[in-house]
Every structure is written in structure tokens, then in C-alpha cells.
Amino acid sequence: MDDYRVLNRASWDERVPAHAASPDYMLERFVDDPDFLSGVVRFDVPRLGDISGLRGVHLQCHIGTDTVSLARLGARMSGLDFSTPAIEQAQGFADRLGLEVDFHQADVYDAVEVLGGASYDLVFTGIGAIGWLPSIERWANTVAGLLKPGGRLFIREGHPMLWALEGSKHPGLITLGYPYFETEEPMVWDEGGTYVATDVEFQHNVTHEWNHGLAEIMNALMTAGMEITAFEEHDSVPWEALPGHMTLDPESGEWRLTEHPERLPASYTLQARRR
Known about the structure:
Elements: H1 3-21, H2 27-32, H3 39-43, H4 45-48, E1 55-59, H5 65-72, E2 76-81, H6 84-96, E3 102-105, H7 111-115, E4 120-125, H8 136-146, E5 147-158, H9 160-163, E6 165-167, E7 174-176, E8 187-190, E9 206-209, H10 214-223, E10 226-234, E11 246-249, E12 254-257, E13 267-274
Parallel strand pairs: 1-2, 1-4, 2-3, 4-5
Antiparallel strand pairs: 5-13, 6-7, 8-9, 10-13, 11-12
Helix pairs in contact: 1-6, 8-10
Domain Methyltransferase type: 58-153
Pfam family, one: Methyltransf_12
Protein name: Methyltransferase family protein
């Protein structure tokens, strides 16, 4: 099971320079506009509310665009990711923006040991993070272990229904191709490319991923001592999750099914507090 970390880290390490250079991450827009926020954070600003002065940590932060966006909203942020190149890129980026954000390299399951337990007001996790973890129960215990009593988890993630779907070259045809619930064995992928625009050809393309059903996520959080305080499903995601079947809404910057978007819960926002 430990091999998944080695394989996944190699894939993410290799993609960091391409992601940082891609126009999709808009790093120069952050530099040019001190009020600019990542699309993921901007989508949820009404749900986040006032986070000024909160001590926050962004788990699985990658190159830190969501992390610095939360810092721009007034939170005192830390970021954690298992990829050393990602952390180095994120720290350099935050320093360039003049933001006091500290980044740490560690596996997410080691976050309490690395960052210190029960010291945060806010744990944030963004799109495309928890699917890289084999146990949602361990993740929930990590979240609870980081939060002060009354501290809040805020997660927006791809919907497990979306992750279970497989697109087809035939217009309008989408099938259930992958597990909805957490499985002991991972889904093994061997795919080049990445989710942003780039011409780079990658060498490390084998990855392991897991899906986690909504009830599994919520039950794991409640068992870990968390209380669910808000839950909302959305018909959109910030990337073309089903190529050929989705259309970009230029106003929101999010992708929806081209036909009958009301049929698919594509993402969700979940909030919980530590009891």
C-alpha cells in the first residue's frame, strides 16, 4: 500500500513546473492584481464568510494558489503537501506576493505530527485532493486532530458520483465505469498529460486513486468528533471533468454537462465543526 505514495508523488513532482507555467493557474494574474483569487476559492467566498484572523491550514495544497487566496481573504495560512517541488514552488510564490504563508512538506496523514495538534481554526481542502488517499477515516481523524474545539473544516471536492463516471466518444453517452464507494484496492491509471494546458510530455504517468462515497465521508467526520454544519451539491466543476460532454460557463469559469446539467451532482461543498 505504501507504494501509492511513491508513484503518486513522482507524478505530482514532475508536473509542478508545467502547472506553474500554465496559463490555467494564472500565477501572473495574482502578481498583477492584489485582489485576485483562485477560481476554487472565489466560487466559495459566500460560503466561507469572514475568515479574517483565523489560523488556517490547507491540506494537499499543491502549488499554493488556493492557499494564498485564503491568505488574501485575511486568514493566517499554512499549506501542506507531500511534493517537495510543489512546496518549494508554493513558498516562492507566496514570498513573491508578499504574503506570510508557511508551507510544509509531509504526507497528509502526518499533518498532526508535523503541524501540531488542535491548533487551527480552519482546515481547508480543495478540488481533487481526497481521491489520492486510501482511507477517508484516517483523513477525517487528521482533520479533527488539527482543529481546535469549535474549529471548522471547509472542503469543496469533486462529487463521488462524478468520479464514478466514464465519458464516451459518443455524444451524450456517459457510463458508470468506476467504484462509487471506497475500495481496498486502488484504481490504477497509466495516463500521460495533466489537467492544465501544456505541451510537456511526462514520464511518470502511473497513479493510484480511490473514490469515497458521501456517506463514508460524513460518517468518518462524525466518528472523528465533527458535526456537519453545511452541505451543498453543485452541477459544476472548475475543469472539464468529462471531455466532450461539458460546456464552460464563461461567467463562473466552471464546467457543466452540455445537456441536462441538472442530472449530475458534479461537486459539493461540505462544512463541519469539531465538537
